[in-house]
Specification:
single chain, alpha+beta, six-stranded antiparallel sheet, six-stranded mixed sheet, 15 strands, 23% strand, binds adenosine-5'-diphosphate, binds magnesium ion
């Protein structure tokens, strides 16, 4: 998949921006606060309908403006598509999504139109923190290639919210009506089966990819990076039946706690290095290698599952990686359209022997394109960039 055009209007610090990215590597450099992450965030919006940061839709609308618009034109194997997302401050029409100028009714229709993988320094949380970033990692990846998964996830969450609301009512008033509990539990159980079985499939694909990538980067065969899916249910065979039983068994405890204590929302992706829990034993360097391996494995898994190369967004990660990891990363991205941001061009200095830069820096956000050495023709062409960029209001 390649993005041919990006247009932003009143999105974060961009009043207006039109950009025609290169189909291989696009490098954006500029000082802190110049809008590099905002640009990647806009691409992420068009892929998944939301920010990759903890941000509400309202946060991304430019201060003082009523609405924001981000639009991308994507070329994939099935042709060209234009995705447009409009965010408004007005009640009732906060977010509208159009694909080829047609408003879509369900969020799930957007999934897969533009597949992307984003890697930023915060992704170290995949290893360092609790289970939630790891579940998000799996959920975002699978949703992009499997719409039924995304729908199951949405329905599961809706069922759980309703179950939890009843639990809270019952906590205050044990005599309250509990008949609806069963319906919500049944719906949760059915969706849990879809979610868990898909996660198990993806983890079995990812684990080999991540293990090999890790060994490739570390250059040490004795370092064995492994992942496994840890399910909060006692059994994963016949998940729906077990889930229903366990929800029923746990009711009194759940009423006391006011939450649902079992199900895919409590599961985890366990990461180990030489069979030891990474979170507890890994060094900083090993954590970085593992995070990078998870992202590279994600790219390859998406390509394997969806048949197309996702677009790669690398936000400020170059300065975080040492030379070996950087070189390894750059050698993996050749086939992918990539957007790299960095604050300093020298972050890529090490790789000058492999890459040539052509630069077109405008005020505020600088922008340059990267081509592999030896492609003289392209280099010349890039010296007069084939993209235009207009930024205002920075
Ligand atoms: N809703 C908004 N309206 C206008 N400007 C915004 C909005 N949200 C963020 N910004 C501006 O965007 C800039 C941060 O952009 P960001 O892309 O995170 O920078 P960086 O280049 O460091 O990645 C800040 O200057 C901030 O003031
Ligand atoms: Mg940034």
């Amino acid at each position: 998949m390649k993005i041919e055009k990006i247009r932003l209007s009143h999105f974060r610090n961009y009043s207006e921006l039109t950009l025609y990215p290169h189909e291989s590597v696009n490098l954006f450099f500029g000082p802190n606060g110049s809008g590099k992450t905002n640009l990647l965030e806009a691409v992420h919006y068009c892929a998944l309908g939301k920010s990759h940061r903890i941000a509400s839709d309202q946060n991304v609308i430019q201060s003082g403006e009523k609405e924001a618009l981000c639009r991308v034109t994507v070329r994939g194997e099935s042709g060209r598509r234009e995705i447009a997302i409009r965010l408004s401050r007005e009640e009732g029409q906060k977010k509208t999504i159009q694909i080829d100028s047609k408003k879509i009714g369900r969020f799930s229709e957007l999934m897969g139109c533009l597949q992307c993988v984003i890697f930023s320094p915060e992704d170290l949380s995949l290893i360092k923190e609790g289970p939630s970033p790891r579940r998000r990692y799996l959920d975002m990846m699978i949703s992009q290639v499997n719409r039924s998964y995304f729908i199951a996830l949405q329905q599961y969450r809706a069922g759980m919210e309703q179950r939890n609301a009843i639990l809270k009512t019952l906590h205050q008033n044990p005599a309250a009506d509990r008949r609806m509990l069963e319906d919500f539990e049944n719906a949760m159980a059915q969706n849990a089966e879809i979610i868990i079985s898909e996660r198990l499939k993806v983890v079995s694909l990812l684990s080999g990819l991540a293990r090999d990538t890790y060994q490739g980067i570390s250059g040490r065969e004795e370092e064995l990076f492994q992942m496994s899916y840890h399910c909060s249910l006692k059994e994963t065979e016949g998940t729906a039946v077990h889930m229903r039983e366990q929800l029923r068994e746990n009711r009194e405890e759940d009423i006391r706690l006011g939450i649902t204590s079992v199900g895919p929302h409590r599961d985890d992706l366990q990461l180990t290095l030489n069979r030891k829990n990474m979170k507890l034993f890994a060094s900083q360097g090993q954590i970085r290698t593992a995070a990078l391996s998870l992202k590279l494995a994600q790219m390859k898994a998406l390509k394997h599952m969806g048949g197309e190369s996702p677009v790669l967004l690398l936000d400020d990660v170059m300065s975080e990686l040492d030379r070996t990891r950087r070189t390894r990363l750059l050698s993996e991205i050749d086939a992918f359209q990539t957007f790299i941001t960095c604050t300093d061009r020298s972050d890529l200095e090490d790789d000058r022997s492999h890459r040539e830069y052509a630069v077109s820096a405008k005020e505020g956000l600088g922008c340059m394109e990267l081509t592999t050495e030896g492609r003289e023709e392209e280099k010349l062409r890039l010296a007069e960039p084939d993209f235009s960029m207009e930024t205002e209001g920075e």
